[in-house]
């Protein structure tokens, strides 16, 4: 059986899925037809039901619950891993408001946007763009500040930018939960035994990756967009953790909390529940 799967070229995704999509493990009769895109493109494709399996931002998950279930392994969730709001210098702002500033956001349906909106509900001057373009947009003055994710957490200081707020830290302070960044969803109309097998195979793929770490597969290196190997490992060490193997009770509670906050912000009642595939 062939399944379409999409994830980003970022080291955490390629590290987790390398053994699966490149058949370094026994895929037990399943074939995976891979596409790699930035996460906001994957979010949009998920809304269209384009792929059988996809990495998505948890910020878009509330809109997918009728068509996709959430796989327990393969995602990015943790503490100290959240998006950062950065600028060229400390900004003059009134109180805790960024209402007057133009903010670059890595996609409308990203978790980063949800967290920014939670922290600054009055800030409406936003420019949505691919996450990798945000640093340069701030540096060149196209925007006043930007929300950065992924490897830009490790490079913004080298480029002369300063952190204004850690949005993940804000989430953790407000909720007490780890921050859900991105997860793996699979279409509901696929047989339950195939969905369960896929979850098992992702865990086996991740176990294979850990067994060979800190060696980096060519699949990770070739897709890391000219990133230094040191930064690739920092990326993997930050975003691939025990929650990537299994969400656990607190991980699942964190995701449901995010769904509840999204529902409150958007007037959704009753709050939908997530169906997890172990």
Q: Label the overall shape.
A: globular
| Main beta sheet | 6 strands, mixed
In DSSP terms (H or I, runs of 4 or more residues), the helix count works out at 10
Bin the strand percentage: 15-25%
CATH class group of the largest domain: Alpha Beta
Question: Helicity level, as a percent range?
Answer: 25-40%
Tell me the CATH architecture of the largest domain. 3-Layer(aba) Sandwich
Number of strands: 11
Order of the strands making up the biggest sheet = 2-1-3-10-4-11
Structure description:
The protein has 2 domains: 2-77 and 180-277, 3-Layer(aba) Sandwich (D-Maltodextrin-Binding Protein, domain 2), CATH 3.40.190.10; 84-175, Periplasmic binding protein-like II (D-Maltodextrin-Binding Protein, domain 2, 3-Layer(aba) Sandwich). It is built from 10 helices and 11 strands. The chain has helices spanning 11-21, 39-48, 111-119, 134-139, 167-175, 192-212, 218-222, 229-239, 242-245, 248-265; strands spanning 2-7, 31-36, 53-57, 68-78, 84-87, 103-105, 126-128, 145-148, 162-166, 179-187, 276-277. Strands 2-1-3-10-4-11 form a 6-stranded mixed beta sheet. The protein has a 5-stranded mixed beta sheet with strand order 7-6-8-5-9. Strand 6, helix 3 (111-119) and strand 7 (126-128) form a beta-alpha-beta unit. Helix 1 (11-21) packs across helix 6 and helix 3 crosses helix 5 (167-175). It is globular and about 55 Å long. The two termini are 20 Å apart.
